[in-house]
Amino acid sequence: MGSLGAILRHPSDFYPLMKLKMAASNAEKQIPPQPHWGFCYSMLHKVSRSFALVIQQLGTELRDAVCIFYLVLRALDTVEDDTSIPTDVKVPILKAFHQHVYDNEWHFSCGTKEYKVLMDQFHHVSTAFLELGKRYQEAIEEITKRMGAGMAKFICKEVETIDDYDEYCHYVAGLVGLGLSKLFHASGAEDLAPDSLSNSMGLFLQKTNIIRDYLEDINEIPKSRMFWPRQIWSNYVNKLEDLKYEENSEKAVQCLNDMVTNALTHVEDCLTYMSALRDPSIFRFCAIPQVMAIGTLALCYNNIEVFRGVVKMRRGLTAKIIDRTRTMADVYGAFYDFSCMLKSKVDKNDPNATKTLSRIEATQKSCRDAGLRNKRKSYILPSEPRYSFVQVLVLLIILAIFLAQFFASRSSNY
Ligand code: D61
Ligand code: MG
């Protein structure tokens, strides 16, 4: 849960945080009894708290398919991400991964911590996969095949141009969007979305991750991982790692802002994709990560901390987003709020200021034109009552007296 300090600074975080905590512990209690499904759902909670929560609220049949889809791709990604596997071993595994899913005996040990457990016990995922409906299996197999081939291609190739960047993000996240749209369609709950819109849903999430994780990826041992395209960073520094050095702070922030501006190109498509969804649980499943992404971009924009440590939304704000993202009106409202926050951070001396502002204004226009923004509390305006130190102290003393009396009266009853 959020720290006491954070809650005192944002008292309205308290209720959504409690609600989230209860939802998470309920979800963990609902682990299915069969060992393979039990393994899959407890693994899902261990490797991704955020996706686990949104997956958990889908209807049973679709939820099982999405859970397996997630674990199969997470296992594939564990192979991709393990920088200690030699290329000549890694590439054939990535390319054949879609076949391994049908083979209960297959396993390959790699990764660390919970990812290692997932790899070592992958037979549980295969067993569960084989119990899914044929249409779900086919969609998962096809996407795994295409993603594995794409990852293999980029093992030996760097992300040079913006086209390479879009292509890499298509393989690792855009394809997830295409696959999910197929699963939604197969469940009978949604029309089949156009591929280009599904792709944008993934690109927006992946680019946000790549921007936020700059430092973690560059510091990766034994070998740094680089996803920022040379076509962008070479306008600011000679080597991608130079962005992390203090003497390049100004260039680093300008480069970061360029990257955020690039990610904003996908917003329109994402709003169009979400506005076509009909099923409320599928809607929440798709919308919560998107709202978190625009919030993360707003936080990272013009923020040197991206090059110094981890920049993350506070837990309380995440909890509020999960609690308050239910309809398209909520999504337009949230995108509008975070666009305002972005706009307020644009420095007119930034080399891309005009481009950035025009993308932000386009987003604000889409949100306004939809005319759906309901009367809601803003995520960014300080609607919080501000408590002074003395006020907090007085409250704590009153609480202490109250508790002391309560316990005194209880013990005198005996
Ligand atoms: C609607 C709802 C969720 C969506 C969506 C549309 C479209 C795309 C995505 C989710 C995928 C977004 C991926 C963003 C996070 N990036 C990663 O996890 C990177 O790995 C990419 C390859 C494995 C993808 C596994 C995945 C992720 C989310 C899913 C899913 C499968 C299946 C169903 C639902 C959600 C990243 O991972 C490491 C890290 O972020 O630290 C990387 O290696 O680059
Ligand atoms: Mg990866």
Could you give a short description of this structure?
Keywords: Membrane, Transferase, Transmembrane, Transmembrane helix. It is built from 20 helices and no strands.
Structure, described:
This protein has 414 residues and is mainly α. 69% of the residues lie in helices and 0% in strands. It has 20 helices and no strands. Helix 3 (35-47) packs across helix 8. The longest helix has 25 residues, at 162-186. Ligand D61 is lined by residues 51, 66, 69-70, 73-74, 77, 81, 172-173, 176-177, 180, 201-202, 205-206, 209, 285-286, 289. Keywords: Membrane, Transferase, Transmembrane, Transmembrane helix. Belongs to the phytoene/squalene synthase family. It catalyses: 2 (2E,6E)-farnesyl diphosphate + NADPH + H(+) = squalene + 2 diphosphate + NADP(+); 2 (2E,6E)-farnesyl diphosphate + NADH + H(+) = squalene + 2 diphosphate + NAD(+).
